[in-house]
Amino acid sequence: MASLSPLCDLPFELFGEVAANLDKASIKALRLACPTPKVSAATRPLLFRSIALRLGTLDWTLNWARSRFACLDALQDEAALQWSIFSECRKLVIDTRYPFVVTADKAIDRRDEVDKLGIQAFEDELIDPLRVSIPEIEQEAFLSLLRRVHSAATGLHTVEWRTTDDAPLEMHNDICDLLFPPAAAQRYTLDVAITVTPSEGTPYLEKLANINFLAIKIAARRRSEFNPSAEFQNTGDVVKRCPDLRGFEFYSKAAVFTYETSEPLRAPLNRISGSKLEIFKADSNLGFTHALNWNKLRNVKELWISGDSSITYIQDLSELFHGFNEVGASLDRLSVENYNEPIHRYLLDSRSTLSDLELWGFWKSEKLGEDFWEQIIPRHAPTLRRLKIYNLSNPRIWSWLDWEANYAKKNLRKCTQLEDLTIAFCDGHKCYLLELVENLLPACPRLHTISLVYNLYTPKGGIQATNQALKAWTSTNSSIFDGRALTLRYDDPYKGCMCFPRRTPEDEIPELWFDRLVQTWRLARNDGVYRFDRQNDLYLTDDKLAWTR
After folding, report:
1. b or e along 506-535 (b: 16 or more beta carbons within 10 Å of the residue's beta carbon)?
2. Which helix (H) or strand (E) holds 389?
3. pLDDT of residue 256
4. Which helix (H) or strand (E) holds 50?
């Protein structure tokens, strides 16, 4: 406590500025170490502006509601507090996707299993035994905690709920009753993402209503389990109960053979009042967009499309982009699987240029690749802030390689507003990441993050080459690096199966249920020499719908 006295003795305004630069863990530690009214008042808005309540964590299994907010101050007079501290909360995240018991032994064994078996560790017979449902008393504790926070957070702006049909149905319905009354629509924006199976999911959709941003994923272990007629009907019924829908996401791998099959979803989308939709995402047969009222999509700013193998896909995609142009839609963000002619034509002829573009998947056209770099990038370069290109089948023309005739190297320098870049940079065991950094930073003054991607099926060679290059690289070129903040980031799509050597504190217990393992390096300077310092690995839980292909 004595060592913190100079900090705690600062004037309130100055102390608040210092606290604003701390992360949440540091703020919690500071509140526990200095339980004074000034520290409490200055840090309260920072700490409680966003609150996440998650099942499936070691902390919840060990402590659940009893010590969930131990950082509330040493003044633990609950009657006096009356939970008023949560009035600062603007965003509440509820995650019930993993309503399972977690122990330290399970988490450590699971990490070791992944290291030993690789991708086989994710087979059903190894994961299913870990799905031990939390006891009813813990379910009740979670609901009690949620009700109290929800009631006390009088300034809520946004509620996000991520769930699946693994959650007990009774608990699911209790949360629905809390979040979905008509009055809630006037109080906060409601964002719900739910994953359900064809066999168990219908009851979990029946109470969903009054949602602003809705994501429904139909998941099945075998393609034969999908039931497209029921899926479109059930999803359409939810859309009917959401008159103020502003974002819609639909994910299903069901085989659909006629446009009539998807009419139960198409019709409610056509009946949405006005043109409120801002986000539109589909990883399914695109037939449900056939004959949509395009005016409903006029104000969409974010479009995410994953292709499928249906014989009408190219036709449906062309119709969709024609509809956007017909009503004058101006997209800001576009994410599409597999680059093809309809996408290329849209990017060439659209009314507006993009700030965010993602291309990912399998596509093979060399000519389209050349035209993308020579035509599309120069057109969108003045506004492009984020670019992700991840071609899994023809990486060379879509990668940054240190060749004189490399299209990416020639054209990416034109993206002067670029902040975040994802692109491949390995040719076999040759790594050109550092050449990319040294060439691109002078041309892109806002670039702060480069995400690393490799061959999806055989990433080890590229990872090894990159690891060696990062360890060996240093620079004294202050004209490029002085004052620059740059993070290199790798998201392991296999959650630790295909990653760089791990870097975690010795006593850290890994997460059992998480969405991605993230490994990072940050540009650092020491005695005039620049290098990339490896940071500790992070087990992250997405605040958006997790969708694993």
Report:
1. eeebbbbbbbbbbbbbebeeeeeebbbebe
2. strand 386-391
3. 83
4. strand 50-54
**SS3 at position 450:** strand
Contact (Cβ atoms closer than 8 angstroms) between residue 206 and residue 241: no
Joined together, the tokens standing for residue 5 give 């006295």
Q: How far apart are CA 360 and CA 391, in angstroms?
A: 6
DSSP, residue by residue, 204-262: HHTT--S-SEEEEEE--SSGGG--HHHHHHHHHHHHHT-TT--EEEEE-------GGGG
- Residues 6 or more apart whose CB falls under 8 angstroms from that of 175 comprise 94, 96, 143, 146, 161, 163
pLDDT lower than 50: segments of the chain: 1, 73-77, 79-80, 543-549
Count the alpha carbons within 13 Å of 191 in the hemisphere toward its beta carbon: 17
What's this model's pTM, rounded to 2 decimal places?
A: 0.89
* Distance (Å, whole) CA 244 – CA 274: 9
Strands 449-453 and 430-431: unpaired
How far lies 243's CA from each of 40, 46, 160, 187, 233, in Å?
41, 34, 18, 15, 17
- The token pair at 94 is 């509820």
